[in-house]
Amino acid sequence: MAAHSSCNFALTNPIISQIDSFSKKKLSVPLYFFSTRKALTNPWLGVVDSSLSLTSPVSALQTNRPRRIHKSVISSLPTANPDLVVSDAKKPKWSWRAIKSFAMGELEARKLKYPNTGTEALLMGILIEGTSFTSKFLRANKIMLYKVREETVKLLGKADMYFFSPEHPPLTQDAQRALDSALDQNLKAGGIGEVMPAHILLGIWSEVESPGHKILATLGFTDEKSKELESFASESGFLDE
Predict the structure, then answer these.
(1) Which residues are CB-neighbours of 98 under 8 A, at least 6 positions away?
(2) Which residue of 27, 101, 131, 218 has the fewest C-beta atoms within 10 A of its own C-beta?
């Protein structure tokens, strides 16, 4: 009796009958291709194209497709001296070690949450790069990265922990002059070779009132060592960097 009543309920219920009749039909197109081009309205997102939904196999393939990443290569560092801006044929090229040292200096300034990239950051960048003759020369004279970082905090203080540095902290005036000096050294030598980290270090040392110079002096760097580095640079032409 109970089975007979349930059968009658299924026959008399229009919704169940409609589902049963729909399931018996043969579909010529798969269900997941339906409604892939309708625009859905969301109160927070506005109009959303449902073709990007996960129910569409085409959109799933597009989602898994690897994205193209456009990379830009820096071939020069900023200069504030218009006299150093020459034609491309005569423009000195910065070595990849010098460019990496500059990039690491920017990153170190961001780590310390400083608003600018100063000569102290350029000095740390040379040490972080680590493969140039200049960085090896500094380590041989017991000028290590952790010591420079400690002296930087002593000299400039700790930054506000809630301060967020810009992605590319702008150069301080003495850091810009140090880079200009590095470029000028190469031009005075006839523009032979590339501008190397040694040029940057000598530029930092030439800025007597800069934090980078003071930190180097505190850690035992002297004019004699600067001349030693400069003489080696002029003899070898920085080729071994």
Answers:
(1) 77, 182, 194, 195, 196, 197, 199, 200
(2) 27
